[in-house]
Write a structure and sequence with these properties.
five-stranded parallel β-sheet, binds ribose-5-phosphate, globular, single chain, alpha/beta, seven-stranded mixed β-sheet
């Protein structure tokens, strides 16, 4: 097996390779003055099972183009199979038409990946279970929830005051799974509304009883609006300690300040998206999914 990394998350790719006792193969990405890219693989891939790791977080389109070109180069090199590990799958939120006239972007990406010769996809915590159906190749949607469960067990094992919180109706499936992994601890759900034009988030109602310590669970944090709004409502309803577990730290520019200022104690995310130093903040803790991905690549 050979493993290449795009430029978006070399840190995670290196950890995955280490777990597989492999070295990263060499990929040259040359950027022209007009920002076009030339991609070249520097190792032979003939008849090899080849893996390419690239998170398609911001800059989403650039990271996708780099991935497409890398897959093409590997295909032309005669690889036996090509697996893309896309730890964070960009455009996943545009998985259906919310309003008449919109594109279903995630489907377009799936079609491109298949057309250029991808054999297998491994990704994590897709926004909806339906997205996998956009692919006709093998697509695995791993989850960071077991990593979170292990961590929560160690930290709050005998704590009877913990409640899991979904910050919106879309996350109910997620907290039910996590609750099962944690011996059926109680959960509650917030009713969130997002203005489709401005993106502003509001929340007024919590369904279910909450304890003094609450753990908000989400698939991703982008603007930080969902978490900040949920935290305000939870405090108002008696929560004294609020922890956040979210798989993908997509983090738009203002998210770190919003999260640091919000009424929360700590934010746990994973390394599916690389967080540069300038976006790190004191409440942020990063857990790794490298071992889980490496385990999947072995089968
Ligand atoms: C929404 O359905 C998702 O699960 C996340 O809650 C959302 O994408 C987070 O976005 P933001 O941080 O911008 O509120």
């Amino acid at each position: 097996m050979r493993i290449f990394s795009g430029t978006s998350n070399k840190f995670l790719a290196g950890k995955i390779a280490k777990n597989l006792e492999l070295k990263l193969s060499e990929l040259e990405v040359f950027v022209f003055p007009d920002k076009e890219k030339r991609v070249r693989i520097l190792n032979k891939v003939l008849d090899e099972d080849v893996v390419v790791v690239q998170s398609t977080s911001s800059p989403v389109d650039e990271n996708y183009m780099q991935l497409f070109f890398t897959i093409d180069a590997i295909k032309r090199g005669g690889a036996k199979s090509i697996t893309a590990v896309i730890p964070y799958f960009g455009y996943q939120r545009q998985d259906h038409m919310f309003r008449v006239g919109e594109a279903v972007s995630v489907k377009v990406i799936a079609q491109i990946l298949e057309a250029i010769g991808l054999s297998r996809l491994i990704t994590l915590d897709l926004h909806s279970v339906k997205i996998r159906e956009a692919f006709s190749i093998s697509a695995s949607d791993l989850s960071a929830l077991p990593v979170f469960a292990e961590f929560i067990k160690k930290k709050w094992e005998d704590d009877n005051f913990v409640t899991l919180i979904s910050p919106d109706m879309g996350g109910v499936r997620r907290i039910k799974i996590l609750s099962r992994l944690l011996n059926d601890i109680p959960f509650a759900v917030i009713e969130k509304n997002r203005d489709l034009v401005t993106g502003a988030v509001s929340a007024k109602k919590i369904t279910g009883k909450i304890g003094k310590k609450v753990i908000i669970v989400d698939d991703m944090i982008s603007s930080g609006g969902t978490i900040a709004t949920a935290a305000k409502l939870l405090r108002k309803n008696g929560a004294e300690e609020i922890y956040v577990f979210a798989t993908h730290p997509v983090f738009s520019e203002k998210a770190p300040q919003i999260l640091q200022k919000a009424a929360i104690n700590a934010v746990y995310v994973t390394d599916t998206v690389f967080v540069p130093e300038k976006k790190k903040f004191p409440k942020l803790k990063i857990l790794s999914v490298a071992e889980m991905i490496a385990r999947k690549l072995k089968v």
